[in-house]
Amino acid sequence: MSNVALQLWTIRADVEHDAENALRRVGAMGYDGVELIELAHAPADVRAWLDAAGLVAAGRHASLEAIEGDLDSLAAELGALGTDRVAVAWIDPGSLADPAPIVERIRGAAERAADRGLRLGFHNHWSEVAPLADGRTFLDRLRELPPELLWLELDLGWVWHAGADPLAELAATAGRCPLVHLKDYASRNGNDDVPVGDGLVGYDRVVPAALAAGAEWLVVEEDEVGPDPFGAVQRSLEAVRRFVG
């Protein structure tokens, strides 16, 4: 059984303006959950708003520095929200010239997170699927870590945008990608985001492959939604439901 979540970065302006109302609208659309970003409210308040909207916290994004620097506070926050999943949201592409140190930082963060009952994941952008000096990608390096230590949140839109094959990445990551991001593009020229199903990624094929790879949560994300953000995320939800079948 798959669930569909919305990454709240997609509607960040509305969340910043009135988080409670934004969550209420997302729940009314029929989303099952949300993936959270940095909170501007008390975790207990956010949990109450989620419960009232019929939503669950599928996970949370955080910087590697935040995970390394204040893991106890993050663990307490996630406990209040009702999730144990946190994903590294972003790393500087420049750090990948010498990938070994960043891989070791992620390994160490994952081990410390596990000690606190958390499951650490990693969310890719475009640079992590580009071949490095030895021909492997950064995602290949992360897949060498034990799956029980680190899960991978494949952003299938960024994989496609970078010129890689979402189906191949899903096959290589099967069994360790409980959350995947669904992001669609009108082209590979610039960041011309469109609602899921309106672009060229091919989610009619990619969504079934994600489910076959073990995805528990299909997370809709659109970096720039234009003047009607809730209309865009509603359109994405309807498309994802069709592709799930």
How many domains is the backbone divided into? 1
The CATH topology corresponds to: TIM Barrel
Order of helices and strands: EHEHEHHEHEHEHHEEEHEH
The 3D shape can be described as globular
Low-confidence stretches: none
**What is the residue-mean pLDDT, rounded to a whole number?**
97
Beta-strand content estimate: 15-25%
State the CATH superfamily name.
Answer: Divalent-metal-dependent TIM barrel enzymes
User: How would you name the oligomeric state of the polypeptide chains in this document?
Assistant: single chain
List the strand order in the largest sheet. Answer: 1-2-3-4-5-6-7-10
Q: Just give the CATH class.
A: Alpha Beta
Query: Count of DSSP helices?
Result: 10
The SS-based structural class is: alpha/beta
Walkthrough of the structure:
The chain starts with a strand and ends with a helix. An 8-stranded parallel barrel has the order 1-2-3-4-5-6-7-10, surrounded by 5 helices. The protein has a two-stranded antiparallel sheet with strand order 8-9. The chain is an alpha/beta fold. α2 packs parallel to α4 (71-81) and α9 crosses α10 (229-244). It has a single domain, classed as TIM Barrel, CATH 3.20.20. Helices cover 44% and strands 18% of the residues. 43% of the residues are buried. The longest helix is centred in the first third of the chain and has 18 residues, at 12-29. β1 (3-7), α1 (12-29) and β2 form a beta-alpha-beta unit.
